[in-house]
Protein backbone atom coordinates (compact mmCIF):
# COMPACT_ATOMS: atom_id res chain seq x y z
CA UNK A 1 0.00 0.00 0.00
CA UNK A 2 2.79 2.44 0.89
CA UNK A 3 4.20 2.63 -2.64
CA UNK A 4 0.72 3.39 -4.01
CA UNK A 5 0.92 6.67 -2.08
CA UNK A 6 3.31 9.57 -2.56
CA UNK A 7 4.70 11.70 0.28
CA UNK A 8 2.36 14.46 -0.92
CA UNK A 9 -0.59 12.06 -0.63
CA UNK A 10 0.38 11.21 2.94
CA UNK A 11 0.66 14.88 3.94
CA UNK A 12 -2.69 15.63 2.31
CA UNK A 13 -4.43 12.83 4.20
CA UNK A 14 -2.99 14.05 7.50
CA UNK A 15 -4.02 17.64 6.78
CA UNK A 16 -7.56 16.49 6.05
CA UNK A 17 -7.84 14.23 9.10
CA UNK A 18 -7.93 11.11 6.97
CA UNK A 19 -4.78 9.65 8.49
CA UNK A 20 -3.28 9.89 11.99
CA UNK A 21 0.32 11.09 12.24
CA UNK A 22 1.61 7.80 13.65
CA UNK A 23 0.26 5.93 10.61
CA UNK A 24 1.63 8.64 8.32
CA UNK A 25 5.05 8.25 9.89
CA UNK A 26 5.09 4.52 9.21
CA UNK A 27 3.92 5.03 5.63
CA UNK A 28 6.64 7.60 4.97
CA UNK A 29 9.27 5.30 6.46
CA UNK A 30 8.06 2.50 4.17
CA UNK A 31 8.22 4.72 1.09
CA UNK A 32 11.69 5.94 2.07
CA UNK A 33 12.94 2.38 2.46
CA UNK A 34 11.18 0.78 -0.49
CA UNK A 35 11.11 3.39 -3.27
CA UNK A 36 13.70 3.38 -6.05
CA UNK A 37 13.12 7.06 -6.78
CA UNK A 38 15.62 9.40 -5.16
CA UNK A 39 13.38 12.44 -5.51
CA UNK A 40 10.47 10.62 -3.88
CA UNK A 41 12.69 9.44 -1.04
CA UNK A 42 13.98 12.99 -0.49
CA UNK A 43 10.37 14.19 -0.32
CA UNK A 44 9.77 11.67 2.47
CA UNK A 45 12.46 13.42 4.53
CA UNK A 46 10.82 16.77 3.85
CA UNK A 47 7.43 15.30 4.76
CA UNK A 48 8.75 14.27 8.18
CA UNK A 49 9.46 17.95 8.77
CA UNK A 50 6.19 19.19 7.28
CA UNK A 51 4.23 16.91 9.58
CA UNK A 52 6.29 17.86 12.62
CA UNK A 53 7.57 14.32 13.17
CA UNK A 54 10.49 14.83 15.56
CA UNK A 55 10.68 11.54 17.41
CA UNK A 56 13.95 9.82 18.28
CA UNK A 57 13.10 7.17 15.70
CA UNK A 58 12.77 9.77 12.96
CA UNK A 59 15.97 11.47 14.08
CA UNK A 60 17.91 8.20 13.78
CA UNK A 61 16.49 7.53 10.32
CA UNK A 62 17.40 11.01 9.07
CA UNK A 63 20.84 10.87 10.67
CA UNK A 64 21.49 7.55 8.97
CA UNK A 65 20.38 9.01 5.65
CA UNK A 66 22.88 11.86 5.95
CA UNK A 67 25.76 9.57 6.83
CA UNK A 68 25.19 6.59 4.57
CA UNK A 69 22.51 7.07 1.90
CA UNK A 70 23.83 6.77 -1.65
CA UNK A 71 21.54 9.50 -2.96
CA UNK A 72 22.79 13.09 -2.76
CA UNK A 73 19.18 14.29 -2.98
CA UNK A 74 18.29 12.30 0.13
CA UNK A 75 21.40 13.45 1.99
CA UNK A 76 20.62 17.08 1.12
CA UNK A 77 17.09 16.77 2.48
CA UNK A 78 18.42 15.03 5.59
CA UNK A 79 20.91 17.85 6.18
CA UNK A 80 18.22 20.51 5.91
CA UNK A 81 15.73 18.75 8.20
CA UNK A 82 18.28 17.81 10.86
CA UNK A 83 19.37 21.42 11.24
CA UNK A 84 15.85 22.83 11.04
CA UNK A 85 14.00 20.42 13.32
CA UNK A 86 16.43 18.97 15.84
CA UNK A 87 18.60 20.51 18.58
CA UNK A 88 22.19 21.33 17.78
CA UNK A 89 23.41 19.12 20.63
CA UNK A 90 22.01 16.14 18.69
CA UNK A 91 23.50 17.24 15.37
CA UNK A 92 26.98 18.41 16.31
CA UNK A 93 28.85 15.17 15.60
CA UNK A 94 26.95 14.22 12.45
CA UNK A 95 27.37 17.71 10.96
CA UNK A 96 31.06 17.65 11.81
CA UNK A 97 31.26 14.30 10.02
CA UNK A 98 29.47 15.76 6.98
CA UNK A 99 31.82 18.74 6.81
CA UNK A 100 34.81 16.41 6.76
CA UNK A 101 33.48 13.65 4.49
CA UNK A 102 30.64 14.92 2.30
CA UNK A 103 31.65 15.56 -1.33
CA UNK A 104 28.34 16.06 -3.16
CA UNK A 105 28.00 19.53 -4.68
CA UNK A 106 24.35 19.90 -3.69
CA UNK A 107 24.90 18.64 -0.14
CA UNK A 108 27.99 20.78 0.41
CA UNK A 109 26.10 23.82 -0.86
CA UNK A 110 23.20 23.00 1.49
CA UNK A 111 25.62 22.78 4.41
CA UNK A 112 27.25 26.10 3.55
CA UNK A 113 23.88 27.83 3.08
CA UNK A 114 22.70 26.54 6.46
CA UNK A 115 25.87 27.64 8.23
CA UNK A 116 25.53 31.08 6.62
CA UNK A 117 21.93 31.41 7.78
CA UNK A 118 22.52 30.61 11.46
CA UNK A 119 24.64 32.76 13.75
CA UNK A 120 26.16 30.12 15.98
CA UNK A 121 29.80 29.75 17.13
CA UNK A 122 29.94 26.02 16.36
CA UNK A 123 28.34 26.48 12.95
CA UNK A 124 30.81 29.29 12.27
CA UNK A 125 33.64 26.84 12.94
CA UNK A 126 32.01 24.30 10.64
CA UNK A 127 31.69 26.98 7.95
CA UNK A 128 35.35 27.91 8.30
CA UNK A 129 36.41 24.26 8.01
CA UNK A 130 34.16 23.69 5.00
CA UNK A 131 35.44 26.79 3.21
CA UNK A 132 39.04 25.69 3.85
CA UNK A 133 38.24 22.27 2.40
CA UNK A 134 36.71 23.86 -0.72
CA UNK A 135 39.61 26.31 -1.10
CA UNK A 136 41.94 23.31 -1.22
CA UNK A 137 39.74 21.39 -3.67
CA UNK A 138 39.22 24.26 -6.12
CA UNK A 139 42.45 26.21 -5.46
CA UNK A 140 40.52 29.46 -5.17
CA UNK A 141 39.91 32.05 -2.47
CA UNK A 142 36.92 31.74 -0.14
CA UNK A 143 35.10 34.70 -1.74
CA UNK A 144 34.77 32.78 -5.01
CA UNK A 145 33.51 29.49 -3.56
CA UNK A 146 29.81 30.38 -3.57
CA UNK A 147 30.03 31.20 -7.29
CA UNK A 148 31.68 27.87 -8.05
CA UNK A 149 29.07 25.96 -6.04
CA UNK A 150 26.28 27.83 -7.81
CA UNK A 151 27.81 26.92 -11.16
CA UNK A 152 28.05 23.33 -9.99
CA UNK A 153 24.35 23.33 -9.13
CA UNK A 154 23.66 24.84 -12.54
CA UNK A 155 25.55 21.96 -14.16
CA UNK A 156 23.34 19.57 -12.21
CA UNK A 157 20.20 21.36 -13.39
CA UNK A 158 21.34 20.98 -17.00
CA UNK A 159 22.60 17.39 -16.74
CA UNK A 160 20.31 16.00 -13.98
CA UNK A 161 23.47 14.39 -12.57
CA UNK A 162 22.58 14.82 -8.90
CA UNK A 163 25.59 12.79 -7.84
CA UNK A 164 28.09 15.35 -9.14
CA UNK A 165 30.89 15.73 -6.60
CA UNK A 166 33.14 18.65 -5.76
CA UNK A 167 36.22 16.90 -7.15
CA UNK A 168 34.88 16.51 -10.69
CA UNK A 169 32.53 19.52 -10.81
CA UNK A 170 35.27 21.94 -11.95
CA UNK A 171 35.61 20.11 -15.26
CA UNK A 172 31.83 19.99 -15.73
CA UNK A 173 31.64 23.72 -15.02
CA UNK A 174 34.32 24.47 -17.63
CA UNK A 175 32.46 22.35 -20.19
CA UNK A 176 29.26 24.25 -19.46
CA UNK A 177 30.91 27.65 -19.81
CA UNK A 178 32.50 26.63 -23.13
CA UNK A 179 29.09 25.65 -24.47
CA UNK A 180 27.69 29.09 -23.57
CA UNK A 181 30.18 31.83 -24.61
CA UNK A 182 27.80 34.53 -23.35
CA UNK A 183 27.69 32.66 -20.06
CA UNK A 184 27.10 35.38 -17.46
CA UNK A 185 23.40 35.11 -18.22
CA UNK A 186 23.46 31.56 -16.86
CA UNK A 187 23.43 33.06 -13.37
CA UNK A 188 20.18 35.04 -13.07
CA UNK A 189 20.47 34.97 -9.25
CA UNK A 190 24.03 36.33 -9.24
CA UNK A 191 24.45 38.93 -6.47
CA UNK A 192 28.21 39.60 -6.61
CA UNK A 193 30.36 40.01 -9.73
CA UNK A 194 34.13 40.35 -9.46
CA UNK A 195 35.81 40.90 -12.82
CA UNK A 196 38.64 43.31 -12.03
CA UNK A 197 41.82 43.47 -14.10
CA UNK A 198 40.50 41.39 -16.99
CA UNK A 199 40.60 44.15 -19.63
CA UNK A 200 36.95 43.59 -20.42
CA UNK A 201 35.34 45.71 -23.10
CA UNK A 202 31.57 46.15 -23.57
CA UNK A 203 29.60 44.17 -21.03
CA UNK A 204 27.66 41.18 -22.27
CA UNK A 205 24.01 41.85 -23.06
CA UNK A 206 23.14 38.74 -21.08
CA UNK A 207 23.79 40.80 -17.95
CA UNK A 208 20.31 42.21 -18.52
CA UNK A 209 19.03 39.15 -16.60
CA UNK A 210 21.04 39.93 -13.45
CA UNK A 211 18.19 41.51 -11.52
CA UNK A 212 19.59 40.27 -8.17
CA UNK A 213 23.00 41.90 -8.65
CA UNK A 214 24.02 43.91 -5.57
CA UNK A 215 27.78 44.41 -5.88
CA UNK A 216 30.08 44.66 -8.85
CA UNK A 217 33.85 45.14 -9.08
CA UNK A 218 35.19 46.13 -12.52
CA UNK A 219 38.39 48.07 -11.79
CA UNK A 220 41.10 47.49 -14.39
CA UNK A 221 38.78 46.96 -17.36
CA UNK A 222 38.13 49.03 -20.47
CA UNK A 223 34.51 49.82 -19.63
CA UNK A 224 33.77 53.54 -19.85
CA UNK A 225 30.00 53.49 -19.36
CA UNK A 226 27.20 51.12 -18.51
CA UNK A 227 24.69 50.12 -21.19
CA UNK A 228 21.20 51.57 -20.88
CA UNK A 229 19.71 48.27 -19.82
CA UNK A 230 21.69 48.33 -16.56
CA UNK A 231 19.19 50.83 -15.16
CA UNK A 232 16.80 47.87 -14.89
CA UNK A 233 18.95 46.30 -12.22
CA UNK A 234 17.42 47.27 -8.90
CA UNK A 235 20.57 48.16 -6.95
CA UNK A 236 24.24 48.42 -7.93
CA UNK A 237 26.73 49.23 -5.20
CA UNK A 238 30.50 49.62 -5.07
CA UNK A 239 30.85 50.29 -8.81
Q: Which properties best describe this structure?
A:
239 residues, mainly alpha, 56% helix, disordered C terminus
End-to-end Cα distance = 60 Å
| Computed Rg | 21 Å
**Helix and strand element order:** HHHHHHHHHHEE
Helicity, as a percent range: 55-70%
**Uncertain segments of ≥5 residues (pLDDT<50)?**
196-202, 232-239
Give the overall average pLDDT. 82
How many structural domains are formed by the residues?
3
Q: How would a textbook summarize the main sheet?
A: 2 strands, parallel
Class inferred from helices and paired strands: mainly alpha
Shape: globular
What percent of residues are in strands?
under 5%
What does this molecule look like?
It is a single chain. The protein is mostly helical. The protein folds into 3 domains: 1-85; 87-179, no CATH class; 184-239, no CATH class. Helices cover 56% and strands 3% of the residues. The chain has 10 helices and 2 strands; from the N terminus they run ααααααααααββ. It has helices spanning 7-15, 21-34, 38-50, 56-68, 72-85, 88-101, 105-117, 121-138, 145-159, 169-179, and strands at residues 192-194, 215-217. It has a two-stranded parallel sheet with strand order 1-2. Helix 6 packs parallel to helix 8 (121-138) and helix 7 packs antiparallel against helix 8. The longest helix has 18 residues, at 121-138. The radius of gyration is 21 Å and the shape is globular. Residues 196-202 and 232-239 have low confidence and may be disordered.
Amino acid sequence: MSLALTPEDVCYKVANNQLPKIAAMELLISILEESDGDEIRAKCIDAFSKLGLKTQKIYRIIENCLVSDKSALVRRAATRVLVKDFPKKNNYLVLKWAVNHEDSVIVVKELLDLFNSIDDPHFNLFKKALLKKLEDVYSIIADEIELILNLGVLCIEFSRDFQLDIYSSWFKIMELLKRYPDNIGLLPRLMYLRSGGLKLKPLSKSTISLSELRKIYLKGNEIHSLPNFWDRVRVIKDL
